Amino acid sequence: MAGFKVAIVGATGNVGREMLDILAERRFPVSEVVALASSRSLGREVSFGDRTLKCKNLEHYDFSDTDICLMSAGGAVSKEWSPKIGAKGCVVIDNSSAWRMDPDVPLVVPEVNADAAKGFSKKYIIANPNCSTAQLVVALKPLHDKATIKRVIVSTYQSVSGAGKDAMDELFSQTRAVFVSDPVEAKKFPKRIAFNVIPEIDVFMEDGFTKEEWKMVVETKKILDPKIKLVATCVRVPVFIGHSEAVNIEFENPISADEARDILREAPGCLVIDRRESGGYITPHEAAGEDATYISRIREDPTIDNGLVLWCVSDNLRKGAALNAIQIAEVIVNRGWLKAKQKVA
Which domains does the chain have, with CATH numbers? Predict the structure, then answer.
């Protein structure tokens, strides 16, 4: 197979670095990898496998010989640059929220709706969903196929890495400040995050929900099924890596906890760890650095007909972002939808 020239925009960030690691780990067929960032990060070094790459300036880079651009530089950068890059015939797989609800841009989780990725040809952009949505739909899809989901109530426990490297630094410095009795400063978060939880992720909307909660609703409908009703409460917790979700699902048709367990055991991207004993479940600490969406505590909800409750955990930097983007790239390459521009001699 020919190699593909891949550019990573935002290569110095949490997700950008993870993308470089996963490209190397999964042996994605690259002919060349280019690390791109803003002029601030020009010349900074990032690692790709056993190689070191120096960051080049996004502003001066010519995408005309590049096949795939993994975009992880935030919504404003993506809004400006993704159409320009796509116009050069380079497929942008974007990790921001900028394009997710654009009707001409596929929103893809490969285990759930890989076929949708073929629609990239309209704008040469494919959107990665929000981290909390990605792991949720991986768990919901096989259950929806079996018993048809009517309604979902989800409460999230989201790690600080979802808000970037500065947020991780803030949790670390605040925790240290508590131990040495220094004043605790909140800069990145609206309230102190150390030894606390904050029910505010992204901005508040007019109806009282936050934008993160809204994203989970509209993205689940777009990826999985527009008929599913979903309500979310999204909470930031003092965990460095890994998002957890308590998910309550109401189905149209009967489904037992045992059936659900068997279905999820066979489902792509899912790992069931559900022993009904102390410690017989997964926590974000154990999911960090892993690719799977872990599902535990599967049980029937006695308060409604055809109801299940489960606990779902995944590494938000991997499945929630970098891994999902690279799995999308694998889909369009492996299915022959994208051909490399340069033939390897």
Answer: 4-128+322-334 (3.40.50.720), 132-159+197-314 (3.30.360.10)
User: What is the DSSP code string of 66-119?
Assistant: -SEEEE-S-HHHHHHHHHHHHHTT-EEEE-SSSSTT-TTS-B--HHHHGGGGGG
Nearby residues of 336 by Cβ (< 8 Å), 6 or more positions away: none
pLDDT at 39: 81
Q: Give the relative orientation of helices 131-147 and 211-223 as an angle to the nearest 10 degrees.
A: 40
- What is the C-alpha to C-alpha distance for residues 103 and 101, in angstroms, rounded to an integer? 6
- The torsion defined by the Cα of 238, 220, 318 and 122, in degrees rounded to 10, comes to -140
Phi, psi for 113 (deg, rounded to 5):
-145, 50
What's the pLDDT at 134? 98
Beta bridge partners of 80: none
Predicted confidence (pLDDT) per residue in 124-174, tens digit:
999 999 999 999 999 999 999 999 999 999 999 999 999 999 999 999 999
Kind and range of the H or E run holding 51 = strand 51-54
Query: Catalytic residues, which ones?
Result: 131, 243
Calculate helix-pair angle for 257-266, 131-147, nearest 10 degrees.
120
Instruction: Please list the ranges in the chain whose pLDDT falls under 70.
Output: 1, 343-345
Task: Judge residue 280's burial from the number of C-beta atoms within 10 Å of its C-beta, 0-12 exposed, 13-18 middle, 19 or more buried.
Answer: exposed
pLDDT for position 41: 85
Q: Model pTM?
A: 0.95
Q: Residue 56, class by beta-carbon neighbours within 10 Å (0-12 exposed, 13-18 middle, 19+ buried)?
A: middle
Confidence (pLDDT) at 342: 79
